[in-house]
Amino acid sequence: MMKKEVGNRIKNIRKSVNLNQREFGKRLNISGASLSEIETGKFKPGFDLLMNLVKEFNAKLDYVFFGKGEMFADRTLSLPGRIEEFAVNINDVHKFLYYFERSPFIQYSVLTHFREMLIKNSEIISQDLEEYEKKQVDSELGIL
Hints:
By secondary structure, the protein is mainly α. It has two domains: 3-74, lambda repressor-like DNA-binding domains (434 Repressor (Amino-terminal Domain), Orthogonal Bundle), CATH 1.10.260.40; 83-141, no CATH class. The chain has helices at 3-16, 21-28, 32-39, 47-57, 61-66, 83-86, 90-102, 104-120, 122-141. α7 (90-102) crosses α8 (104-120).
């Protein structure tokens, strides 16, 4: 793997999730300075950084290593890049994702509430999904 090319792709991921080097590095458990050296190709990313990139941002390693395919495994799961589309308070969404990933209590509580909400509001949710999917198709076709 070419260090500079891999570094550029990591930088592209960082930019697509709208984080600066310090914030992105913090999420990957490295300093902003270390991230800068990786992005410029001075150093290769380590295994831990790559695993955190997948875990934190749902990045695809085929993209990171070879520049092939999509940047993220599933765009609907790569929330950091899409938060602004859905959230009024981005910091609250980041905090939610942090706690949800790490706390079984939060996971259980949120998923219990989520199940109840799906049952009580199934018609509204179905309409929202249809509208969202139509917007996605229109966007891909260049209709908007």
